Structure formats: structure tokens, C-alpha cells
Amino acid sequence: VTPSTAALSDLIDRGAQGEVAATSQLITAVESRTAGMATLDAIYARSCHAHIIGITGAPGSGKSTLVAALARELRTRDMRVAVVAVDPSSSISGGAILGDRIRMGEHTLDPGIFVRSMSSRGVLGGVSRATVDAVAVLDATGWAVVIVETVGVGQAEVEIAQIAHSTVVVSVPGLGDDIQAIKAGLLEIADVHVVNKIDRPDAHKTIKDLLGMLRLSEPGGDDQWSAPVLGTSAVSGEGVPALADALSRHREWLGSSDHLRQRERAIAIARIRTIAKASILERLQDPANTGDFLAIVDQVVSRALSPYRAAALLLSRVSDVVAQTEGSTHD
Ligand SMILES: Nc1nc2c(ncn2[C@@H]2O[C@H](COP(=O)(O)OP(=O)(O)OP(=O)(O)O)[C@@H](O)[C@H]2O)c(=O)[nH]1
Ligand SMILES: [Mg+2]
């Protein structure tokens, strides 16, 4: 059953009043693409208050455990915390999906905590539209902090920084001989570095190495944010209050100047691109739009058509379809 725009609008109101089930239903409606443009507009119009925090890092580095600990810490500070956990579709570190649920399980009775797991299946790398949509719904329904845990592989790892206000990069001791285990691209996106599993003996060397690397790449400048390096033990909770402090300092720093507007602009660009890309791919995969797709492919194979011209042809068909449907669903 496709919910009506009025019913969905009611869900937004009830979610904003703290009804967790309403927020959950709204995410489902948006995720399953049963919410029309008017609902998406209404959600977006109400979303601009949450502190969006991205957490990334290698598989098994302890992201989920850390998110649970951070959420617990933020609850003691009276903040309503929502978590979007993007589960690897094929678990790399083993049983992550169930593990996440169990670890988060302790929070489920607290109406000030919301946890949503989503699959990364079907996403061609990077941050999915479903993630972007869930963040918007959670923001619109009044969650003060929205934490997104990404899969620690591929594009999503780096792209998370484009949809978050503050990005935490989690590394762990002993992943390799030295800190080279942290990919270069990840160094730059971190607003806060966390070396988790600080309870391990080699952890302090990892912190030292990381600080050394950052000193080499530090941008400098008075109004620049300098990413702190924090040690945590997500299991014992050690260092987690300092992480919460660093994140709120970063949020304050953003708000103290033009940085927030710049970040909001970057987030808007990432959202537009993610949605546009997903929308184009979705329509390109629909034979109703692309008709003789295989015939076009064959023409490219036989050099009758260049892939450029084929792409232009398909895109023009898809944009015709987009124009028609947007026109008809603009209720
Ligand atoms: N010793 C120690 N173990 C930890 C710590 N934090 C997490 N772990 C363990 O590390 C393993 C992986 O933790 P997760 O929280 O699932 O890691 P993750 O990064 O979310 O993993 P994926 O989502 O699968 O990439 C679990 O067995 C945790 O108990 C820590 O601070 N110290
Ligand atoms: Mg995890």
C-alpha cells in the first residue's frame, strides 16, 4: 500500500514529537521509494538542526562498538542520538550485522536512541541514497545528533565526509608495520582521529606515528581546524568522553565562522549528486526507459556508435522520463 502524502506528513509530525515508530516508518517509506516528491520536500525543509557525524575506518577497527559507546556518552549529556549503520553486504570482519544489533541492543529501551541498519547491497560503491535519505528524515524528526557508520571499504569510506559535518576516522594498532595502514585519503577527511583498542600494547606507538604523519601534512593557518588524535577503548569506554568533547568543539568551530556554511554547501552538493546519480542509474536500468539497450550496446561493439553517443542517447531518453514523472508526481 502506498501511503498518502497526508499520512506521511502526519508521520513527520509524530516523529518530530518523539514517536520513534513514526520516524522508523518514515525511513521505510522513503527507502522503499513510496514517498512522493511532496513528502521528500517537506522532510528536507525541516532538516537543518542535527549534528551529522560520520564514522569510518578499517573493517573490524571497532566502529560499531565505538558508536554504541559514543551514543551512550551523548545520552548522559541529554542529547537524542540516532545511528545509521551501513552494514557490509558480505561481512568482511565476520558477523557484523548481528554483532551491531546485539551491541546496540542495550539502547533499545531508551526512546532517546534510534538505531537503523541498512544494507550496502546494490550500491555501486560510495554513500547510498538510502543513507542520505535516512539522515534527512532523522534530522527532520528532531534527532540532535545523527551518527553514520560506514562500511570501512571502498568509496563510502571517503565519501562519508561529504555528507557529514564532522568525520571521525578510526584506526587501530597492529594493522600493519606502521601507520601506512591508514590510507592517504583517509588522513585528509578526518576532523577527529581515533586510535581505538588503546588497551592493546602497541597502541601508543600508533598514536605517535599518526601524530608524526599529521605534522607532515598539516595545512596550517590560524582559522584552520587541527584534527586531534584521541585514544579510545570502545569496550571499556576509556577516551569516549574526550571524543564527545572533540566533536562538540568541532561543531562549535564550524558554527563560529563561515566554515559551517561551506560545509553545508559541500553536503548539499554531495546530496544532489548522490540522488541524481541514483536516479539516473535506476532509470537507465529500467528497460521501459532505455528500450533497445542491447541493440545500442551491439552498435557500440560494431563501432556503428561511439560509447559517447550511446551514453548521450540514453541520457536524453532518461531525462525525458525524469521530466515526465517529476511533472506528474509533484503533488
Ligand atoms: N580490545 C579491544 N577490542 C575492541 C575494541 N573495540 C572493539 N573491539 C572488538 O573489535 C571487534 C570488531 O568490533 P566492531 O565494533 O564490530 O568493529 P567495526 O569496525 O564496526 O567492524 P565492521 O563494521 O565489520 O567493519 C569486536 O570483537 C569488538 O569487541 C577496543 O577498544 N578494544
Ligand atoms: Mg560495524
What would you say this structure looks like, in words?
This protein has 331 residues and is of the alpha/beta class. 54% of the residues lie in helices and 12% in strands. It has 14 helices and 7 strands. The chain has helices spanning 5-16, 20-31, 37-45, 63-76, 96-105, 129-140, 154-163, 184-189, 203-217, 240-255, 259-284, 287-290, 293-301, 307-329, and strands spanning 51-57, 81-87, 113-119, 145-149, 166-171, 192-195, 229-231. Helix 8 links the parallel strand 5 and strand 6 (192-195). The two termini are 18 Å apart. The structure holds guanosine-5'-triphosphate and magnesium ion.
Question: Can you describe this structure in just a few lines?
Answer:
By secondary structure, the protein is α/β, with parallel strands linked by helices. The chain has helices spanning 5-16, 20-31, 37-45, 63-76, 96-105, 129-140, 154-163, 184-189, 203-217, 240-255, 259-284, 287-290, 293-301, 307-329, and strands at 51-57, 81-87, 113-119, 145-149, 166-171, 192-195, 229-231.
